[in-house]
Each structure stands twice: as C-alpha cells, then as structure tokens.
Write a structure and sequence with these properties.
14 strands; alpha/beta; Aspartate Aminotransferase, domain 2; 18% strand; 7-stranded mixed β-sheet; Aspartate Aminotransferase, domain 1
C-alpha cells in the first residue's frame, strides 16, 4: 500500500521540535513561523503540555461520552472564563470542519431552514456542509453541491441586506479574519450590521474562529475586536496545540436534547488534557497580550522592507503581500534560510502564523532572513 497522493510536499522531514525550533532527520534546525497551519499555539513540546498529556495517559487515554468526564466540565469552565464567553455551552468534537458541520446543523435545527450565507474567499472545511460553504469549487464535489449556499463579497452592505431579508436562510458563517482566503476582514461596521440583521431575521450567526481564535488575533476571539456576540462560535487548531480536537460554543439560548449531537472521539480524556494545558499556558504566560504586542512589532518591521506592498491581519495572524507570487520566496526561505512560512489563496501573500510565545528576537531573525532572500 502507498499513500493517497493529495499533498504537495517540501523535501523536509521534521523529527523533533521545541518552541518554534524544528529539527529534521539530517540535524538541520528550522524556525517555524507557520505553526502547522496555526495549530501550534503555545510552542512545540511545551513542558507543561507534555507533562499534562503524559500524566493523563498514565491514568486513562479514552472512554466514550456515555460516562461522566469531569475534564470536559473543567475545560468548559476555564474556556468560558478566559474567553469571556461564560454564557455559552461547549460541545467537543475532533476538527474545525466537524465543528462547522455541527454549527451549521444546529442553525438548521434552530430555524427550520437550510440555506446558508458565506463570503467570497472563505474557508470552513472540507466536509459536507462545511465545504459547500467554502469558496473553492475545486474541492466541492457534486454531493456537497446539494447544499444551498450564497457567497457574498465582504463589506457589501447592500448585497447582504438584499439576501438575508429573503426569509430563506438558517445561518451566516463568517471568519473575522479569513485564513486560507488571504487575511481579508469584515469591517467593524459590516460585522455589526451582519449581527443586527441576523437578529432581525432570525438567522443564526456563526463565528468561525477555527484559525483566528485562541488569542491569535490579540484577543481571545477575533470577533471580539468588533463588539458583537455570535450565536455560535467554532474552534479547533490552536485549541489542542497539535492534538486533534475541535469545539462548538453554543449560546445558552440553544436548548440541548439527548442525541441532538454526538461524537465517538470528541472530548476524550487526552484531548481534554491537551486543551487544559493550552489554556493554562495562554493564561499564565499572558500569550494573548504577547500576540497583540508582537503583531504591532511585526508590522513595524515590515514597513522597513520596500518590496512589501501591504500587511494584512491582526496579532500573530499576519500576511505580507507582494507584487509577485510568493511560491519561490517560500522555497528560498525554507531551503536557504530554514524558515517555515505559509501561503494563501492569494498567491502574492506570505502567511505568518507562529506560536503565540515567540519573541521580538525571533521576529528580527525572520526579517533578516526575508531581506536576504529578497536581494
């Protein structure tokens, strides 16, 4: 048997990592400024994270959701307090796509309707309704296209109001900072307009915080920059620092019933241990404030490089936009300077998604390397 070949791979084989440093099988050290698609929120092999998982593994790795699991309750309480979302309930699952599937399903249950509003350049996952709400026809199979989704431009008030007042929609799903799409954002005025119109038309507002959540934007959730309250919030990536886990935060106006949602592996004991460790580190090391501060520092450094035409994003979810496609630049950074960075649907954008506990010194190293490859 061989692997199903769906990933274009760089010729690098990581074998160990610590913080933002990664070593390959030849002993070469790399700096990780991408965090495996924004997953590594507190750094590779953080000692508290490793200890918490090891301790739990010695006790019990898994049992189903048919028994009491106090770790889930502890996680929900800590997450609510740290995120200032105490008036939500937590449902745990395994990934961002699964979180968005469950969010869309709950919106449909709640309203009795099926159509969804999404936005151009959005990315919400690769499964069923989540991929239907993703603006990428090449990954949307005919079976997924049975879902009815309307894609609108960001920040187009008139187009949004015209569609949402048609009384056909169950949900609006929105990234406060688009990840794969290229770090475009709704304006505060537009996000508040969306929230207002959703409430007026009994449409569920889903904040997709899978990539932008967990402090990455300089607030716990990126929608908090806009002073709105979503009905549902979806989370994953940085939630487990590499352990596969996702979650759905449902406002307390949603009423649960037995069998409404379910999962085999979601919220298992090891997943909870990983998530609790992440919250401990984010809180104890003030990583949200660090993300905000270093995001500002990153933008200051970017201004010094004339080839950079635009800086997009917030906190440590940042993109550098050039007037040329960056594929070769990424290759030079990884092979010549030994630095991992990311790409986007916008082929002229270099994405920067490091662990939230990086330092100014790390950012200085990145920009020195970038200057070298741009010569």
């Amino acid at each position: 048997m061989k692997l199903f070949d769906v990933y274009p791979l760089y010729d690098v084989t990581p074998v160990s990592a610590k913080g933002i440093e990664v070593w390959d099988d030849k002993g070469q050290k790399y700096l990780d400024f991408y965090g495996g698609h924004a997953v590594i929120s507190i750094g590779h092999t953080h000692p508290h994270y490793v200890a918490k998982i090891k301790d739990q593994l010695d006790k019990m790795a898994f049992y189903s959701n048919s028994v009491q699991n106090p770790l889930q309750e502890e996680l929900a309480e800590k997450l609510g307090k740290l995120s200032d979302c105490t008036d939500y309930d937590l449902f745990m699952c395994n990934s961002g796509a699964e979180a968005n599937e469950n969010a869309l399903k709950m919106a449909s249950f709640h309203t009795g309707k099926a159509k969804v509003i999404s936005f151009k350049n959005s990315f919400h996952g690769r499964t069923s309704a989540a991929v239907a709400a993703t603006d990428n026809p090449s990954i949307n199979a005919p079976i997924n296209q049975q879902q009815e989704v309307t894609f609108l431009p960001l920040n187009d008030f008139e187009a949004f109001e015209k569609v949402i007042t048609s009384d056909a929609y169950c949900a609006v799903i929105l990234e406060a900072i688009q990840g794969v799409g290229g770090l475009d954002e709704p304006s505060t005025e537009f996000y508040q307009f969306i929230a207002k119109k959703c409430k007026e038309n009994n449409v569920v507002l889903i904040a997709d915080e899978v990539q932008s959540g967990y402090g990455r934007s300089g607030k716990f959730f990126a929608f908090q920059h806009h002073n709105i309250q979503p009905d549902i919030i979806t989370i994953a990536k940085g939630m487990g620092n590499g352990f596969p886990v996702g979650g759905v935060l449902l406002h307390e106006t949603f009423k649960p019933s037995y069998g409404l949602l379910g999962t085999t592996f979601g919220g298992n004991h090891l997943a909870c241990a990983a998530c609790l460790a992440v919250l401990d580190v984010v809180d104890n090391e003030n990583l949200i404030a660090n993300a905000a501060s270093l995001g500002s520092y990153f933008k200051e450094k970017a201004v010094e490089i004339p080839q950079i035409k635009n800086v997009k994003g917030r906190g440590l979810m940042i993109g550098l936009e050039f007037d040329f496609e960056v594929a070769d630049l990424r290759k030079k950074l990884i092979y010549d300077e030994h630095i991992f960075t990311g790409s986007a649907k916008n082929k002229k954008l270099l994405r920067f998604l490091p662990a939230l506990n990086i330092t100014k010194e790390h950012i200085d190293l990145f920009f020195e390397a970038l200057k070298t490859v741009l010569k």
